[in-house]
TrEMBL record:
Keyword check for Transferase: yes
Keywords: Transferase
Molecular function (Gene Ontology), one example: transferase activity
Top-level taxon in the UniProt lineage: Bacteria
Organism: Paenibacillus sambharensis
Protein's name in the database: Glycosyl transferase
One biological process term in Gene Ontology: carbohydrate metabolic process
Length: 356
C-alpha cells in the first residue's frame, strides 16, 4: 500500500486502488503506527524507519504556509478540491508529536518539530471536538515528557513557541464545556450522538489530566469512557463497534456496519485509562478489542490477516468487507501495539508493587 509518495488510501481485496489516491489522514496514522512499533520491535527499527521517512515527508508536503494541512491527493499528486478538516489537522499534529517524542535522531525530529511549530498558528481556529482532542493529546504528551529536548533551542523556548501549557488548559476547557453541555443522566457523552472516532475524546482528557491534574478532566474522561464501553459491548460481552448506518444515541445504537477504526480508538482510550488509574477492566477491554479483530465479534469471523498484516475494511450484516484499505489495516496494527503495550505496563506495575 506504500509507494514512494506515501500510503495509498483504498484497496480492492489486497491490491491498492491507485486511482483513489492518498490522504494525509492515513499517512499521519501510518507515521504513528511506525513509531509505536519501533518501540515494540527494535530489531525491525530500520524497516519501520524507512516507512516513517515516507510518511513524514508526505506530511511535510501537505502542510500549507498557514500551518494547516491539505488532506486528499490524487495518484498523480494533484491536490484535490476540499474543505479544511479539523480532524485531519489534529491527527497530523498528533503524529508529529509522536515522531518528535519517539524518533531517536535529530534529523528526523527536526521535520516533526517543523510541523508542530508551523501548525501552532492554527490551533485557535479549531472548531470541532475531535480536532481539539487530537491536538490536546499531542501537546499533553509533549509536556508529559519534560526530558525530551528540542532539536534547536531550549525546552522553555519550544514550550513558549507552541504555548503548550496555555493551549493544553484552553483545549481541555473546550472539551469539558462540550461535555457539560451534552452529558445527562444515562448519557455521559460529549455530543447528542456517538458518531466516529469516539475514543479520542476520553483518551485526550486522560492525557491532559496527567499534565493539569484536573480532577474534572479525569472524572469526565472516566464517565465518558464507561459510557463508550457500555455502548460498544454486546449482551454477550463482545466488543461491538457503533455502526455507521445510524450511529448511537441515548435510545438507539446502530449495529452495522462496524468499522475497525472504532475498535482501535476504544483500545487507545482504555490503554491510557489503564496507565492513569490501573483498573483491570480497562486492560481487559484492550484485550477484547484485539480479540474483535481475531474473531470475537458479531460474525464470529477473523477480519485481520496476521500473515499479511492487513485487515478487512469492516463487518456488515453479510460478513466481512474483504477490501483491506489503509484505515482498517492501520487500526488493526495500532490495536495490536496497544495490546502489547498494556501487557508491558501491567508487568511494570506489578514489578513496582512487588519491589515495595
Amino acid at each position: 500500500m506504500t509507494d514512494d509518495t506515501g500510503l495509498l488510501e483504498h484497496a480492492l481485496g489486497l491490491l491498492p486502488r491507485r486511482k483513489e489516491g492518498y490522504t494525509t489522514d492515513d499517512n499521519a496514522r501510518a507515521l504513528w503506527t511506525c513509531v509505536e512499533w519501533m518501540k515494540l520491535s527494535p530489531d525491525m527499527a530500520g524497516e519501520w524507519l524507512e516507512l516513517a521517512d515516507t510518511y513524514l515527508a508526505f506530511l511535510l508536503w501537505m502542510q500549507r504556509e498557514d500551518g494547516s494541512f491539505h488532506n486528499n491527493v490524487a495518484y498523480d499528486r494533484r491536490l484535490e478540491q476540499e474543505e479544511p478538516s479539523d480532524d485531519c489537522f489534529g491527527r497530523t499534529v498528533w503524529a508529529a508529536a509522536c515522531a518528535w517524542l519517539g524518533l531517536a535522531d535529530d534529523d528526523r525530529r527536526m521535520a516533526a518539530e517543523s510541523l508542530l511549530i508551523r501548525s501552532a498558528q492554527q490551533v485557535e481556529n479549531l472548531k470541532y471536538p475531535r480536532g481539539w482532542a487530537y491536538t490536546l493529546a499531542a501537546y499533553s504528551a509533549i509536556l508529559r515528557d519534560p526530558l525530551r529536548q528540542p532539536v534547536q533551542g531550549s525546552r522553555p523556548d519550544i514550550e513558549q513557541r507552541l504555548q503548550l501549557r496555555e493551549r493544553v488548559e484552553w483545549l481541555e476547557k473546550k472539551l469539558l464545556e462540550q461535555y457539560k453541555r451534552h452529558a445527562a443522566q444515562g448519557w455521559r457523552w460529549f455530543e447528542s450522538s456517538m458518531t466516529y472516532g469516539n475514543g479520542v475524546l476520553p483518551w485526550s482528557l486522560f492525557l491532559s489530566y496527567q499534565v493539569t491534574g484536573s480532577e474534572e478532566a479525569r472524572q469526565a474522561a472516566r464517565e465518558s469512557l464507561d459510557m463508550l464501553r457500555k455502548v460498544m459491548t454486546s449482551p454477550e460481552g463482545r466488543v461491538r463497534p457503533v455502526g455507521n448506518e445510524a450511529w448511537a444515541s441515548a435510545d438507539h445504537t446502530s449495529q452495522w456496519d462496524q468499522q475497525p477504526l472504532e475498535v482501535m480508538k476504544l483500545a487507545l482510550a482504555c490503554r491510557e485509562a489503564y496507565l492513569v488509574e490501573w483498573k483491570n477492566e480497562d486492560a481487559d477491554m484492550v484485550k477484547r478489542c484485539r480479540e474483535w479483530f481475531h474473531g470475537s465479534n458479531d460474525c464470529s469471523v477473523r477480519i485481520a490477516d496476521i500473515h499479511e498484516g492487513s485487515c478487512c475494511d469492516g463487518l456488515t450484516r453479510s460478513g466481512p468487507n474483504r477490501n483491506r484499505g489503509a484505515e482498517s489495516t492501520l487500526s488493526y496494527l495500532l490495536t495490536e501495539a496497544f495490546y502489547n503495550e498494556t501487557i508491558l505496563l501491567g508487568r511494570e506495575r506489578e514489578a513496582q508493587v512487588y519491589s515495595r
